[in-house]
UniProtKB/TrEMBL annotation:
FAD binds at residues 116-122, 197-200. The record marks 299 as: Important for enzyme activity. This is FAD-containing dehydrogenase.alkyldihydroxyacetonephosphate synthase. Keywords: FAD, Flavoprotein, Transferase. It comes from the Bacteria. The active site is at residue 450. SUPFAM superfamilies: FAD-binding/transporter-associated domain-like, FAD-linked oxidases, C-terminal domain.
Amino acid sequence: MRRWNGWGDDSTTKEVSEHGGALIRSFIGEPKALADVSLESVMAKVPASRLPKHPLISTDAEERVRHARGQSFPDWLAMRSGDFDVFPDGIAYPETSTQVREILDLAVEHDFIVIPYGGGTSVAGHITPQENAKAILTIDMGRMNQLMELNEESQIATFGAGTPGPQVESQLQARGYTLGHYPQSWELSTIGGWVATRSSGQQSLRYGRIEQMFAGGKLETMLGTMDIPTIPASSAGPDMREVTMGMEGRMGIYTEVKVRVVRVAQEEKFMVCFMPSWEAGKAVAREVAQQKIPMSMMRVSNAAETRAHANLGTTLKQFKLLDGYLRFRGLDDNRCMLTFGVTGSKLQNKSSMKQVKKILRQYKGIGGPLANIMGSIWAHGRFKFPYLRETTWAQGIAVDTLETSTDWDNVDNMMNGMEESLRTALKDEGEEVMVFTHLSHVYGQGSSIYTTYFFRCADTYENTLARWKKLKGNTCDVIAQGRATISHQHGVGRDHAPYMPAEKGELGMRVIETLIKDFDPEKRLNPGVLIEDDK
């Protein structure tokens, strides 16, 4: 069963090895856990609903609790402490576009707020209700989860917007096709949510980001239904796909999503090798992207992350064997892990690997018998990392992430600035922070930067949130001022909304605000998300 106050299925855990835990404590000190509250105690706080009675709307207390928060760090603290402040007044479960249209019309008639909810995986505050004089309805799209049509001639698949990643792939692969979109949240996140937040999957080098996959669909707005046709290319003004993507529910709610799919590949392999330095690993990734070698993924971990993963993902015996082998091959503590994949026909993959191995040799990469074994281990557990927060939290250790993207000439400056900001943000409290980074998506122009940080919980929930705000706020300022995006793949939500003007500029913000005002003048759709409405 899905956890009500954390990530994923309650039967799944990601254990931290004893030596991995020791590594974290060596950075941050001995932690002390905070007490969690029970679901029953939170349900007792849920107030009476302000919504009108309607057959599509449930006002059940437990359902309102389970839809009250996403997976941002403040959401996590709210769920663990029981201090939710605001709950949605009800949850709607539409099964058709017509029913979504009916709910939006009802929102106009009874003047209430609407929050779209896909898989509830937001780490940026997209679905968190705010104090409002009006009633708040969360629309759970989870029952719109079917492959509605597959046009094999044009390779266009139509899905209900609430279809989660595993069901997207299982329904497509049963017909011999794949979308190939695998974000870290793939287990729970939905295809409509991917489009609404401009998501990126782990194998974007082959399949592209969601903007390359999104072909059209149906958007229910406060003004009516917008049908976006599946035209392969057009020079007839702005592209309505691009206009509506990334609007995070502010213009309307996607109910049907049409995507470009491809045949399932003949072969897929993931491999891990080790580079002598960060510069060498980064150079390999850049060369692969700029030469357009047909890989499916390329990820570079810096030395700190390489050490962390080696400890967290192995037994002590395995770690010693790996460490000993790499030192024997001449790689010291500066070594960096390079994880990559090839997906395609056997002939294509053979050609790609030949080109990549040439670059690896040039930069003195070490693979050997480890490459396939460690690649398989990574592939098997690649969606388990979010479960780590559950394990560390029980020990009093908080973990969160920050991410951005920038041009190659700015990658080191940006990464170092982010890491330094995180490492020093709690110095005034005498607290240390463990920080590490990887490049998760690479492009000819530049790369994403994905940074993870661990810190000790404070003595109270309130003080723990204050620590996070310093870590997050200081580092978001670094990003906003550093020629980089405030979000490469997590979206904007509420947490990143204050930093949008730095990236978009005055006129860019005017475009976004004008669209929102025109489509939703009464601000009923997800107010406060994407832009700060009160500014």
